[in-house]
Amino acid sequence: MSDSYDDIFEKNRKWASIKKIEDPEFFTNLAKQQNPEFLFIGCSDSRVPANTLTSTNPGEMFVHRNIANVVANTDMNVMTVIQYAVQELKVKHIVVCGHYGCGGVQAAMKKQSLGLLDKWLKNIRDVYRIHREELANIKKFKDKFDRLVELNVEEQCINVIKTNFVLDSYSENGYPKVHGWVYDISNGTLKDLKLDFPKILENLKEIYHLSDNILAKK
Ligand code: CO
Question: What's the 89 CA to ligand 1 centre distance in angstroms?
Answer without folding.
Answer: 26
